[in-house]
Amino acid sequence: MTYWRPHPAITAVVYLLAITVPIAIVLAVIGSSPTLLEKVPEEHRGTVAAFGDGAARLSGSDGGIFGFDDAGASNSTVQGLPLPLPRHGDWSPRRPGDYPPPAGLTSGIDYSVEITEDGHMTHWPCEHEIPVRSFDAPPGSEGDLIWAIETLAFASGLPLRYAGPGTDDERDAEGAISVFHGDHPMFSDPEIAGVGGVAAWPHGLVLQGAVTLRPGQVTPYPGDPWSRSLTLHELMHAVGVDHAVPYGPEVMAERPGPHPPTILGAGDQFALHMVGCR
Ligand SMILES: [Zn+2]
């Protein structure tokens, strides 16, 4: 899951990893609340604690801004917790088999999407704007983040919108993608330049995405190919896309070739179609 930085000016070999095992992420979210943690079976509490960094609060079954229908909430549980289900017409589960690839593209090679344990693709609802906020972004880096968000919105149809720097209250906000610049436990591995992923409910409903970019990997000079490629790659994890094969032409290649891609490959585009809104 690592990615080597080919830029000769920076010696650290680096890159990305998807923190996207859905159940672990759901537990990570739960891990931020002692009350909810009590409901996690004892054998899993260590996992929860290990994922504690950056975990988000969970507002319970009211569904927060998505306005879930409480009547459906008892239909699905994880670890005994009631889960929100979207209102009819708001969102529906998707399975990868519903998206046969076009000729020339192969799942697992040219593209992959995140799949939950119950066999569904993780994807965001289409009916609500998804704000993307930055936290502790280095001066000058905003332009490349906006470029990545708009590239992703255009290619996927997802209602992504750059919402500027976030406040402390908005860290890990529900219904949003948070882009952090700072440390992350996974950065103890020097090859990892960034992490990105989704918090997914069973059936693949995504209500939250997060990206953390390692300091020094995003330059203050707009237009740097590595900054753009890294930011776009991690944001794609935050909308449910997983890795394509290493060294391929895709932005989602598990490791990039000598030139970090900034143009979406055919596999990237198909994966964004699968998780997107058109
Ligand atoms: Zn990755």
Explain what you see.
- The protein has a single domain, classed as Collagenase (Catalytic Domain) (3-Layer(aba) Sandwich), CATH 3.40.390.10.
- The protein is built from 6 helices and 10 strands.
- It has helices at residues 22-30, 34-37, 45-50, 142-156, 225-237, 266-275; strands spanning 17-18, 77-78, 81-82, 112-113, 130-135, 160-165, 177-181, 194-200, 206-213, 241-242.
- The strands form 3 sheets. Strands 1-8-9-7-5-6 form a 6-stranded mixed beta sheet.
- The protein is globular and about 45 Å long.
- Bound molecules: zinc ion.
- Zinc ion is lined by residues 16-18, 233, 237, 243.
Query: According to CATH, what is the topology?
Result: Collagenase (Catalytic Domain)
Instruction: Tell me the major beta sheet.
Output: 6 strands, mixed
Q: How far is the N terminus from the C terminus?
A: 29 Å
The rounded Rg comes to: 18 Å
**E-strand count:** 10
Shape by Cα distribution: globular
Oligomer: single chain
What's the pLDDT, averaged over the residues?
A: 76
Helix count, per DSSP?
6
Order of helices and strands: EHHHEEEEHEEEEHEH
| Class from secondary-structure proportions | alpha/beta
List unreliable stretches of 5+ residues.
Answer: 1-41, 43-82
The share of residues in extended strands comes to 15-25%
Protein name: Peptidase metallopeptidase domain-containing protein
Transmembrane segments: 12-31
Keywords: Membrane, Transmembrane, Transmembrane helix
